[in-house]
Amino acid sequence: MPSPSREYNFDGLVGPTHNYGGLSPGNVASLTHGGRPSNPREAALQGLAKMKFVASLGVGQAVLPPHQRPSLKTLRRLGFIGTDEEVITRAAREAEHLLRLCSSAAAMWTANAATCAPSEDTEDGRVHLTPANLQEMFHRVIEADTTWAVLRAIFSDERHFVVHEPLPASSHFADEGAANHTRLKVPGRPAVHLFAWGRSAWQPTERPHQFPARQTLEASQALARLHRLHPGRAIALFPQQDPSGIDAGAFHTDVLAVGNDGYLMLHERAFVDPRAWIKTLQDSLGDAFRYTLATDRELPVKDAVAAYPFNSQVLTLPDGTMAVVAPIESQEQPAPRRFLERVVAEDNPVKAVHYLDLRQSMHNGGGPACLRQRIRLTDEEVRAVKANVFFTDTLHRQLEAWVKKHYRDRLVPEDLKDPALAREGMAALDELTRLLGLGSVYDFQR
Ligand code: SUG
Questions:
Q1: Is 176 among the residues known to form the active site?
Q2: What is the DSSP track for 132-177?
Q3: Nearest alpha carbon, ligand 1 atom 5
Q4: Of all atoms in ligand 1, which is nearest to the CA of residue 26?
Q5: Is 227 an annotated catalytic residue?
Q6: Which is catalytic among the residues 181, 227, 363, 370?
Q7: Calpha distance 429→434 (Å, rounded)
Q8: pLDDT of residue 3
């Protein structure tokens, strides 16, 4: 019998270069806000307030660190040579867009950091994690190496954890991590892992016309194999993201669907043939399975993309009921708000919705669900983690003070050219790795 486990939400700390680069085609908020001033300090504090709130609900909470930005290693690989200051000055002068790509704080959206399978679902009884290679967007490709190093530092105990290499770097295996993965589970039935994908590298399938489909079927299949799902304890399903949903701005599955334990909340444009998938889930999970499906009529996909009600965290509370943590935009707009009110009113485990202000992240297309990587751990596995990453009141206070000490309260794209910003970031991250007990995970520390 596997030991009981609990979900921990590993939130990404927003990095000191959080800015609106306009870098993500297909992500409506990123394109809309590109070039506007950002407030990294406020962004990081909004993220910490969310962690505190989730922890106060009695749900497991932990933190993952930001990455070094700009990525000097990447700029050097692209031919900018000299001291750190010279590399930045040259890139700013000769290829400002490359500096912008290498300065993105996008690692904050840790739903895209990795995909994970809990030990109770795997053949070898270990937690499996695969860092996402994020091949589709250059400003995110550069995350995989650091994510891999960070996950190896945290989940270093090989008796309990397997941290795989990111999938081979190529468009063929483009992988966006848990943003396309949902695990559903009801007592007495195998867990269901939904590995969603937007395009196939090999098979002819329908594709979006306007925006990129990021995740491939081949990547999703490789993850299911790598994680060695136990045939009796877990099953893998591979729904396709609806290409018309991607064209409407649902670049990841979690823009239009979210699942937790025996409950799934989705928009009809999340997957191709959503009603057939619901039937399959009813067959697999039995009577305990509940879902809420929004039609385009009830909630136009455009409104769902603008307000992100499906990019909520659906959390199982200690009393067994569920709560939804939604972005405040979903409360401000009538159709998403009415939909979430219906969710609470209907016969399912969700008993409350809480709205949080995460506007700094939302303006780049990242809601509550994007900001966290869910990892189920048993108590023994928690004890095997030696890093100081689990959220406590003390860690919260320390991180707040750390943000206030190191972060600027305004950044425009022009500021990325300032070599002092890179230095400030290194000082901040060096202090952070000591606070979190991570050892040396950044290039500048090696
Ligand atoms: O990959 N935005 C991210 C948002 C990721 C959201 N994650 C999930 N849905 N799980 C992206 O498009 C914008 C950066 C900029 O434009 O500056 C950005 O990368």
A1: yes
A2: ---TT-HHHHTTHHHHHHHHHHHT--TTTEEEPPPPPSSGGG---G
A3: 366
A4: 12
A5: no
A6: 370
A7: 9
A8: 83
Q: Which of 20, 23, 101, 134 to mutate to test the pocket of ligand 1 (most atoms within 8 A of CB)?
A: 23
Q: Say how many C-beta atoms besides its own lie within 10 A of residue 6's C-beta.
A: 17
Ligand 1 binding pocket (C-beta < 6 A) is: 20-24, 27, 30, 34, 104, 106, 109, 111-112, 137, 140, 179, 251-252, 254-255, 364-366, 370
Tell me whether residue 116 is one of the annotated catalytic residues: no
What does the pLDDT look like over 292-342, one tens digit per residue? 999 999 999 999 999 999 999 999 999 999 999 999 999 999 999 999 999
pTM exceeding 0.90:
yes
Q: Where are the beta strands (DSSP E) in 210-298?
A: 234-237, 257-260, 263-267, 290-294
Which ligand 1 atom is nearest residue 22's CA? 16
Separation between Cα atoms, residue 54 and residue 212, nearest integer Å? 33
pLDDT at 160 over 90: yes
Report the amino acid identity of residue 416. Answer: L
Are 160 and 381 within 8 A, CB to CB?
Answer: yes
Domain range annotation of the chain = 5-69+104-445
Ligand 1 midpoint to CA 30 (Å): 7
What dotted CATH number matches 5-69+104-445?
3.75.10.20
Spacing, Cα 27 to ligand 1 middle (Å) = 7
Mean pLDDT value across residues 154-164 = 98
pLDDT of 2 over the 90 cut: no
Contacts of 248 (CB under 8 A, 6+ apart): 269, 301, 302, 305
pLDDT in tens, 15-48: 999 999 999 999 999 999 999 999 999 999 999 9
Q: Give the pLDDT score at 344.
A: 98
Residue of 128, 252, 354, 406 marked active site: 252
CB 350 within 8 A of CB 321: yes
Residue from 176, 218, 329, 381 carrying the catalytic annotation: 176
Rg of the Cα trace of the chain? 21
Q: Give the mean pLDDT of the chain.
A: 98
Residue nearest to atom 6 of ligand 1 (CA): 366
**Distance set, CA 387 to CA 5, 99, 220, 444 (Å):** 19, 32, 29, 20
